[in-house]
# Entry
Amino acid sequence: MANKVRVQEILLKALENLNADELKRFQWHLVQGVLDGLPPMAKAKVEGVSLDETISQLMQFYDDKPAVTVTATALRRMNQNQLARKLDEALLTEFVQGHLEGNTGKDLIPNA
# Structure
């Protein structure tokens, strides 16, 4: 399994190009709830905080795989398909690298 810090780095890299309004919209999605079966995040945890802090809160609230899935789903709902693809590609790279090192990373790839 990729470590939590590496997952945070992947999420940060995928989301770093969001402008302030897009970050607010991403945070709104987190508060509204993104996936059935997973609770929405508390508004106080993400409202008005930086991208770094949003990712930290996301990782604390969800485990690695749900955090990645929630992020990708929220991006797609925002029509940020290029960023969602960037996230998918980074995860695939991590999966391949982990596989070569004996760690499949399968727990991070949605639906794997």
Remarks:
- Residues 4-100 form a domain with the Death Domain, Fas fold (CATH 1.10.533.10).
- The chain has one domain: 4-100.
